[in-house]
Amino acid sequence: MLSVSNWISGTALNDLLIAVSWAVPLIQVIHILSLALVLTSAAVLSARALGVVFGQVDIEAVVKRFSPVLWGALVLMVASGMLLIIAEPERSLINPVFGLKMALLVAAVGATLLLQKRLNGIVSSPDGQITLSASLQFLAVINLGLWVAIASCGRLIAYYSTH
Amino acid sequence: MAFEGIAQWLQNTLLAQFIAGSAWAFPAIETVHVIAIALVVGSISIVDLRLLDVSWKTHRVTDLTQEILPWTWGFFIVAVITGLLMFISDAASYALNFAFQIKLLLLALAGANMLVFHMLIEPGIDSWDINRSTPASARIAAGLSLTFWIGVVTYGRWIAFTTTDNFGPL
Question: Start and end of every DUF6644 domain (chain A) (predicted)?
């Protein structure tokens, strides 16, 4: 990872992102705004599965509305995150908190895909009342917990820099 | 002058001293602050995008506001409390930080915009709650709301890049 970090430090894009003083803060802002959409969408999906919000709205309609926002914003979050790595490779690549964040990201993507799949398979009864299984409710809690943990790691990367 | 005195007094309180002196308190508070503000902006954008007729036109505006805004307020209270805790840890520096001052101004504008919406625009909501285009006044309020909140996030992040004092990682 150190050699990768050193290689990135020598690229022209790295030079540019460092030379432009407002580039890193601006990309961080974009990263946080995309986090806002990812986290909120994940929270709505989980909270709907638990029956906490949008109780009157079909689960299918909630998934259809919020899943595309989650995945679209995640693409923006990963893209802006990559630029931040290129700008300051040693801040993240050799940072254990960043490693943990990436592991959590893989788990969160898996949990969200699974939650989406299981929610789409639910058919509401005519009166709209459904009680979801304990395993699905557990998945919903885990899903939200993973995204919150990813956001936490994101901020804490700054404090555990090894350089 | 009086303000400097207040700032000094704040950062001399036991709580402020603890936050400033602890290795983990500030990062922990800041983490909660970022998550809270992300959820404030994300949840309010659900309502604003509906008011802009961009999304969920099949749902009543009032259903969305009743469902979402109590959560937004809850997250906002968490963001304010954590924000105050960070502020007191180094009050005199933050008070003079240009990005911080702009952030407070944008928060005030977001609040004023919300008051205008509630007092002048929302009373007529029955005629456009659903199945009708939202009026220009509601769209303007929603556009301003999104703009102000994106500004709050932007200048919030910029605080760390503007100060020369010893807070934060940057």
Answer: 27-159
